Amino acid sequence: MILRSSYFMLRRMLRGYLALIILLVTPLALITVLGMVAGNAMDEQLGVPVINTIAVTMILGFQLYGGFYTMEFIREDLISSKKWRMYSLPYQAHQHAFSILLTCIAFSALQGFTMVLFTQWFYGVDWGNIGFVLVVLLALSILSQLVFLNLVLGVKNYKNAERIGTAYGLVSMALAGVWFPMPDSGVLHFMSTYGNPLSLGENAVYAFMAGESMNRGALSIVILLVASVVMAIVATLIGRRKLA
């Protein structure tokens, strides 16, 4: 039943053209424009072309907002005034919630992977081990979907949940040094290296892209997975009350 529900969820997501434009077309457009500006410049610190770093930041950065898929479908199907139609079916609410979560994780990760392949074919971005990049995208997608699931279940006002979700992405980008460099020491240095999901994803991808800091890359994946487990436990506890 969950797999059948996931199939229909996938069809609904494919009809969400606005979300596809925001989370798929927009990052590709930004990569194209910024890549043209960067030209053949090299990132001296990482030893890779600047277009590579642009692609990594944009694709992983927009992955943080993929959690809005889970947030919107959970609200629409299980929390809004339409929820009684779902509760009247011989299908438990928590099963449908799991179906939504599973589909959104896979869809968001594959959306990111599509951009990875696009940038590799059209812009010559060397991603290293493509299979490992997919693992990173899945890990980041799992965490982001669970974060937004907790927000929609735990925050009473949906608009506030949306604002917190947006802040989650913006703060992660700021800590990752997307707009301005972070200090090389102290708490902010730790937060910019291991204290936000975007940096963790970048650590893992750059480990294979540049062939260095493999231990940092592996540790980053472990942190993402541990954080996901914590978020899953919290979501289970909140969901038992909210969806009962």
Automatic annotation (TrEMBL):
Q: Which UniProt keywords apply?
A: Membrane, Transmembrane, Transmembrane helix
Q: Does the keyword Phosphoprotein apply?
A: no
Per its record, how is this protein called by name?
ABC-2 type transporter
Q: How does it sit in the membrane?
A: Multi-pass membrane protein
- Where are the bilayer-spanning segments? 16-38, 50-74, 95-118, 130-153, 165-182, 218-238
One GO cellular component assignment for this chain's record is:
membrane
Which SUPFAM superfamilies does the UniProt entry name for this protein? Answer: Multidrug efflux transporter AcrB transmembrane domain
Query: Is Membrane included in the keywords of this UniProt record?
Result: yes
Q: Which Pfam families does the record match to this protein?
A: ABC2_membrane
Q: Give the source's domain of life in one word.
A: Bacteria
**What does the UniProt entry say about where the protein is found?**
Membrane
Q: Name one GO molecular function term.
A: ABC-type transporter activity
Instruction: Output the InterPro entries linked to this UniProt entry.
Output: ABC2_TM
Domain ABC-2 type transporter transmembrane, chain residue ranges per copy: 10-206
